[in-house]
Design brief:
This protein is an alpha+beta fold and 671 residues long. It has eight domains: 1-109, no CATH class; 110-183, OB fold (Dihydrolipoamide Acetyltransferase, E2P), CATH 2.40.50; 197-266, OB fold (Dihydrolipoamide Acetyltransferase, E2P); 281-354, Nucleic acid-binding proteins (OB fold (Dihydrolipoamide Acetyltransferase, E2P)); 358-441, OB fold (Dihydrolipoamide Acetyltransferase, E2P); 445-528, OB fold (Dihydrolipoamide Acetyltransferase, E2P) (Beta Barrel); 541-606, OB fold (Dihydrolipoamide Acetyltransferase, E2P) (Beta Barrel), CATH 2.40.50; 618-670. Helix content is 27%, strand content 31%. The protein contains eleven helices and 30 strands. The chain has a five-stranded antiparallel sheet. A five-stranded antiparallel sheet has the order 8-7-6-9-10. Strands 11-12-13-15-14 form a five-stranded mixed β-barrel. Strand 27 and strand 28 (567-571) form a beta hairpin. The chain is elongated. It starts with a helix and ends with a helix. Residues 1-51 have low confidence and may be disordered.
Amino acid sequence: MSELENKATEPTEKEEVAAQPTQEESTPKAEEKKEETIEEVVVETPVVETPQAEAEVEAEKEVAFTEQEEEVAAEANIPAEFDWDALTKKQDIYSSTERTKLEDIYSSSLSSIVEHEVIDGTIVGISPREVVINIGYKSDGIIPFNEFRYNPDIKVGDKVDIYVENQEDTNGQMILSHKKARILKSWDRINEAHDNEEVINGYVKCRTKGGLIVDVFGIEAFLPGSQIDVKPIRDYDIYVDKTMEFKVVKINHEYKNVVVSHKALIEDELEQQRAEIIAKLEKGQVLEGIAKNITTYGVFIDLGGVDGLIHITDLSWGRIKHPEEVVELDQKLKVVILDFDENKKRIALGLKQLTPHPWDSLSADLKIGDKVNGKVVVLADYGAFIEIAPGVEGLTHVSEMSWSQHLRTAQDFLSVGDDVEAVILTLDREERRMSLGMKQLAPDPWSAIREKYQVNSKHKATVRNFTNFGIFVEIEEGVDGLIHISDLSWSKKIKHPAEFTKIGEEIEVVVLDIDEENRRLSLGHKQLEENPWDVFETVFTLDSVHQGTVINLHEKGALVSLPYGVEGFAPMRHLKKEDGSNIKAEETADFKVIEFSKENKKIILSHTRLFEEDQRVTKAKQAEKATSDNQKSKRALKKVNEKVEKTTFGDLDVLANLKSEIEKEEKAGKK
């Protein structure tokens, strides 16, 4: 301490003498006596209600305290004229100027510390584990050395940022942190850089999923892979352990996340170049670019800050499956501008347009009817595209692949990559279109159809398709025919061709008619046998009775199986038995033929007619007999009447005889 400070702190002899009475006053005896006196005064003080009374009370208190002071002074051997006011005053040995100077020196030696703020500190000591920091407070602070591992070259006297966590812990130690001070200042710095769109430096620490981790002002920020460069980056590792420039593009204050971008800096640099390039773009202009990205549908070309797309169809005159067959990544290419939008943000480029069209180099001698060789490049249900030269294709419709008329697809005949031979059917050089045919390489089977398939000739065919009205069959490749459902069987009634045969089965047919114009044959199957209805006409005559079995029963009647494989129909009203019940399905009974039609191949049967005829005959006989009896009775009555007229009522014998004759006539009639 300075001499001035020592003088200010050392007491004078007069101050020591003046301090002695004060110490005596602080003795227990004096204090007890003083307290008793005060208590007596308080107890004896009356309640005052007016201002005059209050003044009188105050005067009495002053007198009481004066007496008390005199008693204390008497006990302490203090003279009555002692100056009590000067008791606590010290003699001022400094001038006002000196006193002001001392106060400034003392104030500058101390600083006001506020918790949870960042302040400057000075390193005053370093050990392997701790760093001692002086922040101008009553004591120094200690910070672990590992908080300075980012800067191991620190030394005594260096100024550092310090965050005050607590002025004093339970042990009286001040709690400081350099790491938190750096983080708080870093966040302030990052926010400032984001708000001002400032370019900052960062250290790429490591690679992570989808990008890189960058150290910016001591805070880990995320650099997405899409924000590294304007072109796609395939190897992120080449950027690790490098210091690069960035822009802060996004801050999430809630989760303390920071996103930076290096691409934004490149885009800013390229923006001016892009504006110059876009301003000069014209359709048909040829530019040089680099393939920056290859997709399944095309290639993106970097034209020096502006991107354009070459669609896969504009890469080559020939068909390709993937752009990689023509272009490699980072390859330099010359391209032509095909089109662009109003803002010139989407630019369509072409590569094949820089080479002559293959149709222009097609041989002038090529004409319709010529045979060509090619490869199948595309297959569809309706046909196949055959490439006869790079970029020159012809369509072969499925109907031109085979003479067969069946509904089929191109996949039934060809596969992609097949080498085929075809004939040119149509050729349009202006429209650059060509149609090809394959079936023309084989002879047309319909050219000599009447010689090969004469009417009534028998052949074997393959069932290809069913319809409700018949069966389509194929006798040979390209020669089809139809068997109508009515020409399948003489005797069976077929509702659908599927009941008779199956697709793919072989069936015998007879040629009934030839339609050369529509390339169709009318065929029959039942014609292989004689018409059995010629025989059935003599067997199933009207009123003839035959045994049959009900094979199908419905609301209108029953289908009955008869001998010789023929079928008949019995209406519902003709299925009633004699006992009143109906014939059931699969029941066998006798049936009478009530109708026969050779032309319509129809036999109508009845079971009810069998017993109805007998009943009708019986009833007829009974009616005839009743008529005869009535006639006899009439004759007898007539005879009686004649006799009665000849008799009188008194003639009793005559009446008795008449009565006897009448009775005999009645008995005879009953018999």
